Amino acid sequence: MATMKETLVNADLTTTTQKVAVPTPQPGQVRIKVVVSGTNPKDWKIPQWILKGPQNSGDDIAGVVDEVGEGVVGFRKGDRVGAFHEMMEQSGSFAEYAIAWARTTFHIPHDTTFEEVASIPLAATTAGLAVYQRLRLPMPWQQAQKRTPLVVYGGASAVGAYAIKFASLANVHPIVAIAGRGIPYVETLLDKSKGDKVIDYREGEEHVIKELQSIEPNDEGKMHAVDAVSEKGTVGHLAKMKAKDIQIATVLDTTIKPEALAELPKHVNIMFTQVGHVHRVYYPNLEKDVPFDKQFGAILYPFISLGLQEGWFSGHPYEVAPGGLEEGVKVAMGKLSRGEVSAKKMLIRVADDE
């Protein structure tokens, strides 16, 4: 039986590397030899807050297809790919081999690095769902035909930055991004000629609210926002915008935190964006979204692949944690849990390029 190394994140954020059997892809799945793994804040939060025990919590895969499961079309051994692993399931990306569904796997150009690709899957999928599925903004091939203001809270975060990219592809403007240390990066994503601008949250709460209230809603009196921070304060700030209809896509489930919603007026609509919906139901009360999110996911990944190939889509800035698989996961989880990562993704190099 072939074995591989797999690194688990423990509840105390130490790591354990163990030898396990190389996983076998099931029908509809692909096995990928991991070259670079991405990381996300949930990679330390799930073992510590939810499971209270060890998990290979990596979900951002960049590598080479090693085996395809029954019924898989469009992928074969040796293909360079990126993929979004199904959250909370075994065979994640903190390992030498990982499993992904073919429908959330995408081809990557030969001149695109595995590092860039590893910065994409989970964050870009979250942003795509928020912009297109929750807020119902135009798809890129539809192009917004009139002024469509969008606020992105946490514009330097990976989710926020991808939300800006997706909105820009659809000609959604003006985009107002709220950021801090990452403002220099955020400004590279904006088009000031179309009214895009940045609000610096470091200037204080009153400044942020004043700037938000200066934004004119669209012709129907509506404002759209992606809240990539999704805390009580950020939702509260967005709720104070001067519009008769405020639509906010959040990335944390404020619907199960009544204190975050208690003082919101009726014209503020909060829509939780659960990225895992491209795979399955995680929250029964949101089950109605899942069939359509699965369809959206199946479309999004070839779209990203085409964007990488043609140059109109790109990954997020990144930093590779030193030490390879085991040490790299430990370093990344430490930096993420201490809030030391801003305007970049922490990556782990698992293997040499093929």
From TrEMBL:
Q: What's one Pfam family here?
A: ADH_N
Oxidoreductase keyword on record = yes
Similarity comment: family membership: Belongs to the zinc-containing alcohol dehydrogenase family.
Name of the featured protein: Enoyl reductase (ER) domain-containing protein
Q: Which PANTHER family match?
A: HYPOTHETICAL OXIDOREDUCTASE (EUROFUNG) (PTHR45348), OXIDOREDUCTASE, PUTATIVE (AFU_ORTHOLOGUE AFUA_8G01420)-RELATED (PTHR45348:SF5)
Drop me one GO molecular function for this one.
Answer: oxidoreductase activity, acting on NAD(P)H
Which terms are listed as keywords in the entry? Answer: Oxidoreductase
Query: So which domain of life are we looking at?
Result: Eukaryota
Residue ranges of every copy of the Enoyl reductase (ER) domain listed in the record? 10-347
Taxonomy of origin reads: Eukaryota, Fungi, Dikarya, Ascomycota, Pezizomycotina
Q: Which Gene3D superfamilies match?
A: Medium-chain alcohol dehydrogenases, catalytic domain, NAD(P)-binding Rossmann-like Domain
What the entry lists under InterPro entries is as follows:
ADH-like_N (IPR013154), ER (IPR020843), GroES-like_sf (IPR011032), NAD(P)-bd_dom_sf (IPR036291), Trans-enoyl_RdTase-like (IPR047122)
